[in-house]
Amino acid sequence: MKFQVLLCCSVFLFCGFSRYEKPKNTEGTVILKFNNLFNKEALDFEKEYTNAHGEKVKFTLLNYFISNIKLTNEDGSTYVIPQDSSYFLVKQSDPASKEITLNHIPSGKYSALTFTIGVDSLRNTMGIGSRTGALDVGATAKGMYWVWNSGYIFFKLEGTSPAAPEKQKNVFNYHIGGFGGYRSKTMNNIKTRTLAFKPVVVSNRKGPVIDINVEIDHFFDQVNPIKIAEKSSVMWGEFSTKISENYVSIFNLGNVSSK
Amino acid sequence: MSAYLAISAFQMSNIQRTFFKPEIPSNFPLPVYDLKANPLTEEGIELGRTLFYDPILSSDGSTSCGSCHQQFAAFAHQDHPMSHGVDNQFGRRNALPLFNLLFSKTFFWDGGVHSLDFSPLNALENEVELNEQLDNVLKKLNDSEEYRDKFKKAFGVSEITSKVFLQSLTQFMATLVSANSRYDKFIRNEGGLLTAEEKEGLELFEQKCSSCHATGLFTDGSFRNNGVPNNYRFDKGREEITLNASDRGKYKVPSLRNIEFTAPYMHDGSISSLEKVLDHYTSGVEQSVTLDPLLKQNNQPGLAITDPEKKKIIAFLMTLSDREFITDKRFSEPELFLNTPKPNEKNHSHTNNR
């Protein structure tokens, strides 16, 4: 009888064990938090601000694509997030979109983050089957695609300002895109940004939260002066390169905390 | 000959789809479109055909793709230099015919779109055409039990997304292959005959026209300025896409197949007959910085073609008409739309510029 009980228990235990997943010490999570700021304070669509050129501004829309994310290990090796899972659209109007959770990151000590602001060239040429999730032009990516000149809008900033012409209702529109062209070479506004930090550990389903501060005030003056009075509407045109030159370096490292 | 190869029935999970293999004409280059990413099925094609002719794609239910892409005009817009969409608003360029799209490297007169999957969006979201937004179209389709059912049968999906919507339209458009003109049957030795005049026209065509209107597609797919008078204020052509001043006034070389059915001609529909087209090439070419070098021979704009030669060339161009294509029932408007009046449809007459 004792033997049979023991046998049952063993079988039960054995079955129990085989139902558990092997604990994964080998993977963790990294969370990216995008904080849109103006003059170091959280961006608010209700607030009126003054830009570096003395122009009053109120924002109504801020969207940007973050993609092709890479993490660099302190030994120099890199982990590239599988591309199909590496396209995100951050929208100021959608707080949930500002937090990006990257799962299944191999354990290690990471010291740098690289990401693309925009959508890479190759993806811009693919068929509709490869445009899902954040890239879905009939859903998440609505309003972030040029149907007449195939390609995504990488960074979209809209609002009102007395400096913008009255005949366009004081509205300013900055729609920045351009992946370099397919059959002909065209303008390329794809930008890559790398942020380095003190090594953080990723392991055992845990990992850091990396804050990325996006300084919208410096959209207007980081490298080139962008004056609403001079250019209130910039879309598919050479001038957009001056804007992408600005916004690439307004993405800066904030707090990095370990969980 | 328009026979397509045999079909094989396939069972995938719980849906049954009938795969369809388009036959590639032997006098054509290879397809550009990646069929592996969107394999054609009878169900997908039929769904695409229904959508092509359904005015539900327009904001007010008045206009469908078929409104401006008419089969009897080889899917161009008969007699219309420019087309009118929702609220009778006019566009600024001539509606291009639709055929042999699997072989095109770019779409539209300025080549602004390079994946066939994305070509319908340009018309769908243009205010003067279908005046809609993709997400709203998807909502309308998802609200229709009939469409949800059709999409389930064709793609195995319970929700209609941009992916399956556009893929079904592509599948229908992929079947629009036009390669059975009398010229094709002649060149492929299938018993097609050309008269002496038509053969002379073919020879002249090869001398004078085929540098640009090349290959079995009758276009090399390049962008050129052929000297059609252009006020660049309203239409800069390819330059609008590349932002390159050297592309000003350049438009894609259109195919000449079915040219008998697709008048009026040029990017703005400004030339109403083939006779006038050839007159343009001999005496109407406008000089400009970006005028194609092939039209600047001997320091004179245009081509040297005598009147008898023009007649022969036109006789040859008539042999490019594919009557099988423009009457093929598989590409026609489904019965269910033919008898449904569209709101705001006006009986309009238009002047015939011939």
3D architecture notes:
The complex is a heterodimer of chains A (259) and B (354). With 259 residues, chain A is mainly beta. Chain A has one domain. Chain A contains 3 helices and 15 strands. Chain A has helices at 2-19, 121-125, 240-248; strands at 27-38, 41-42, 49-50, 56-73, 78-80, 87-91, 99-106, 108-117, 145-146, 151-160, 171-177, 191-202, 208-215, 233-234, 251-258. In chain A, the strands form 2 sheets. In chain A, strands 3, 4, 5, 6, 8, 9, 10, 11, 12 and 14 form a 10-stranded mixed beta sheet that branches. In chain A, strands 1, 2, 7, 13 and 15 form a 5-stranded mixed beta sheet that branches. In chain A, 35% of the residues are buried. Residues 14-18 of chain A have low confidence and may be disordered. With 354 residues, chain B is mainly alpha-helical. Chain B folds into 2 domains: 8-178 and 325-338, Cytochrome Bc1 Complex, Chain D, domain 2, CATH 1.10.760; 182-321, Cytochrome Bc1 Complex, Chain D, domain 2, CATH 1.10.760.10. Chain B has 13 helices and 4 strands. Chain B is globular. The A-B interface holds A 125-132, 136-139, 142, 147-150, 181-187, 236-238 and B 33-34, 37-38, 105-106, 108, 111-115, 117-118, 121-122, 124-126, 133-135, 137-138, 161-163, 165-167, 170, 238, 240-244, 247.
